[in-house]
């Protein structure tokens, strides 16, 4: 079975095509600058070099059409016909309280995704563009949506409710939802396999550390608490997001600087975090390079970033009354040995012992980076959200059609 996985943004679209017989990626790529006459299409068939084209792509329907043309192209395509694609899976950031798992798209599902536009104004509308674009190009194909929030629907009320008037939750569903759930679910399952213990018997902390970052306490296989909240702004210090701050800063800054709601929202989401403190970049690689040159602001940004991550690890250890496994994933988590070392250096009170050689190893492979004596096993696991979406899509299609 061939399944196409799509992650649609407002002006971009990423895709991967899977053969589910062996979970092989047949092709992958992205379309950038949708809405412009100089859109860039990158297409990479398995085992071959990347194909790049610049063309006019003014909306997502054309972008999907271009992707399908490349997949079935006579010269560099990987399928004889797009009719071989039996389903399309989409990543959707916000599923609210309505969805606890992946679902097949129908009118009710689309209506509920639209109802959640207010909770994810930058993401859900873009995801709907992707769904509608596939429908326009492949009206008969089954579509499935996987939600970043679904994994966190197991959180107890004490974890997801805010200590504010309950009327705000009852009327407007203001609560903690959490994000990166597809990633946290994947690495949790892989971690259990690597340490050869049932996930249902583990106390695990998953750190998805990229430009956006979140930390999740996984207790007995279920999300118990997570750092992102109503929106992806809460929690850890990130590339351009502030993470946790005193909420009174918002009205105070608005009054002092005469800021509008839009301006203060932009400040916290796009002009804070590593970028704000370092003054040079939101990219951890550039921060580390600047530190080597003696840049004090870069060092301060790194220290604050690491400290806030370590505080969350400590709080989740307390919340679960212990921790068995600590996982690092996503761009920074997978690639920054310096961050992992700094975090683990001050967690030795847990009986955690880092294997420095394994930590420094440059590898894209999943691995254990703690010593055999360490009471907490520390792992690096490259995340694979697209594979999770493909698997969920495959399973739902099998269940609905009894496809062999």
From TrEMBL:
Q: What does this protein do?
A: Catalyzes the formation of acetyl phosphate from acetate and ATP. Can also catalyze the reverse reaction.
Its pathway is: Metabolic intermediate biosynthesis; acetyl-CoA biosynthesis; acetyl-CoA from acetate: step 1/2
Xref: CDD domains: ASKHA_NBD_AcK_PK
**Which leading EC class covers this enzyme?**
transferase
Q: What is this protein called?
A: Acetate kinase
- Summarize where Mg(2+) binds, as residue positions: 7, 385
Q: Which InterPro entries match?
A: Ac/propionate_kinase, Aliphatic_acid_kin_short-chain, Aliphatic_acid_kinase_CS, ATPase_NBD
Q: How is the cofactor bound?
A: Mg(2+). Can also accept Mn(2+).
Question: Binding positions for ATP?
Answer: 14, 208-212, 283-285, 331-335
* Keyword annotations: ATP-binding, Cytoplasm, Kinase, Magnesium, Metal-binding, Nucleotide-binding, Transferase
The Swiss-Prot or TrEMBL record describes its family as follows: Belongs to the acetokinase family.
Keyword Nucleotide-binding among UniProt keywords? yes
Active site located where?
148
Q: Can you name the source organism?
A: Paenibacillus vulneris
Lineage at the top is: Bacteria, Bacillati, Bacillota, Bacilli, Bacillales
Localization: Cytoplasm
User: What GO molecular function terms would the record report?
Assistant: kinase activity
Q: Which Pfam families match?
A: Acetate_kinase
Its assembly, as annotated, is: Homodimer.
